[in-house]
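Record format v2
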Amino acid sequence: MFEVIKKGLETSLQDYPGRVGFLNQGFPPSGPMDSWSFRLANLLVGNKAEEAALECQYTGPSLKFESDHVIAICGGDMQPKIDGAAVPLWESILIKKGQTLELSFCLTGARTYIAFSGSIQSELWLGSKSTFHKAAVGGIDGRAIQEGQKISLGNSNSKIGKKIKADVIPEMSNNGVWEIEVVRGPNDDWLDNNGYQTFLDAKWKLQARSDRTGFRLDGPLLSFNEKATNKSPEHGYEPSNIIDQGYPIGGINLAGQTPIILVNDGPSMGGFIVPFTVPSASFWKLGQAKPSEYFKFKEISVEEAQDMRSYQTLICSEESII
Amino acid sequence: MVKEYSQLDLDNFDKIKISQKKNSIPTKDKPYKHDTKLLDKSTKQVKGQHYKQKDKNQFSLIENNLATSQIIEETKYFFSQNTIDDSSGYRSMYPHNIRYGKSKIKRPSIKVHINEDGTSPKLTWNNDSDLSSEIFKGMYDEPKYLPGGDKYLLVEFGNIMSLELNFKAQGLAKAIEQANIKGIYETLPCFASMIVHYNPDEIKYGDLRKELKSLVNNLKSSDDTIVQSRLFKFPTVYLDKWTKEAVEDYTAKITYKKPDPEFIVELNNLDDVEHFVRVHSSTEYWVASLGFWPGLPFTMPLDPRCKLTAPKYNPPRTWTPKGAVGMGGSSTAIYPDKLPGGYQIFGRTPVPIWDPEKRFSIFKDSVCLFRPGDRIKFEPCEYEEFESIERKIIDGSYQYDVMENHKFSIKDYKNWVTKLDWKKKF
């Protein structure tokens, strides 16, 4: 059990891969944005990679423990301390009864995951413990953790001092520019060649108004094909309007002229085109990017994206623990 | 080609934002201070290049409302910022990012599309077409298989909104379920397309595509499809005060538009709003898909004589009353909660369509009321009935008006359509 002393900016319970199987009722998957760090954190404390852990965004929480527990912190560097003494990331550590774990703002990256041996006790909601804030469901009371809340932990024996092999730790950008892989489609033929090239050549700035629903980007204007400018009224006025369709998570939605990357809590359906999609293996970079940083997109094929994912699944395993 | 606002305009947006922030959500009792003065009703430009300064000022309000959106109290933006420009919250968190004593915050630009020749994009209205022959058209010879990253595949059957395409999408979704293909997590059938969510660790894109192609080729004509379908009746106040208020609020703060029911009357050559209500409430609606928000149904009229068309809002509304009934394209939807939205709205129902607490037994299997393939009938009612139902909802005694275990045969449906009296006036 621990008590929430400070809640942080938005600290929520997530599990991997989230709420799968309810897309046709309008539920997004939710789940951790950087599932790479998330899974490694769980493995360090002896949990299954999928189990529920806390996702901290930008500024982490302070948690006071009421019993000894093994935890691991992975992801962005929120300068974690136990009773004022710095503790390492990417390592299983012991926190004792009465001690306080304190995270502050993120020096590198944007999201950090705290995993607890035996995981967090919470009810499944539609098959998942992930929080979906917008509809206030899942997680702990459907929302981010609150000050004064007491949260129960499971029990399991796990060792301290376990580490992650250095070469499988995700490397955060140090210059504020992230190269993000994209796969062309599903609606790439609505842009003309010029629009397509502009998208890939540009440096896109992540707007402050971005959350777990969507990441808004600022950048150049894109141009369209005839298909987009001459169509039946069911589609809508804007060239980027299309008859409502299902959205892939990771889809780069063109709302008017503002690209919005639909992320874990994004809408399942809507009436804008999706010319490119960020594949799942690149999601950790979205999760670790801060507003005002830049995205540069690199086109890869579906097969390459699937190979990247297989590799990531491979390294998010016991093999990476030493 | 796109028109962008100048830095001067953007600076002006910011000024107005600061002075009007506290007054951004007006109510009827407390009208918005600048309501009438700011809005020049003669400026009916919706699309673009001729916005007057006053209109542009309104945009900052939209942006502001989006940023401080009150959809649900739990809606959060990182940093708890008040406006999109308010980055002060995170500046102190990242001291290394502060390079200058006084940093100029750049506002995100507002961009509106205009064509090369300076005109706005046009929509092709086809009012003369023979509806009876059009209803089952619009399918591609071969569906398109389009990748959505490494985990999604979109099958597009056509590019118009027609029942036939949705039957096809629902038919394929059913076939996939029965084929039990390893690695497919779930499907989401939409109007003219269907998206598949799969696990590439179990099935690769190329293989999935092959599997789907063979399923599509073996799909019997949708005529042979029989769908489990329930019929729900929804008491609805048409031309109600709540949606009217939302539209007036939009007109006051965002841009002028003709009231939604009148707009639909004009576009669809109807006599008047009463005629519209008769047409809209005379048919059952087919739940084509659920999406955008938990439980939100996208539906299409089953009686082709009642098919109406209307474009979506541009730009979208920042709020819509819970239970509002609206249409966009040829689709009718019910808003499960107070949400932003783009459909033309004209009615409101008191009956909840999603219930995370499962207070009503109808939600025992799912927190969302509808399943694709259900049908909805809107029953016009008066305010008294609305309020009486609302009270029953609150005390938990309301009984959903539903007919279960219907079987919907597409073949029978098509037969019925061919025998319709097209001269009937609603």
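Chain B touches chain A through 93 residues (CB under 8 Å).
Chain B has a mean pLDDT of 77.
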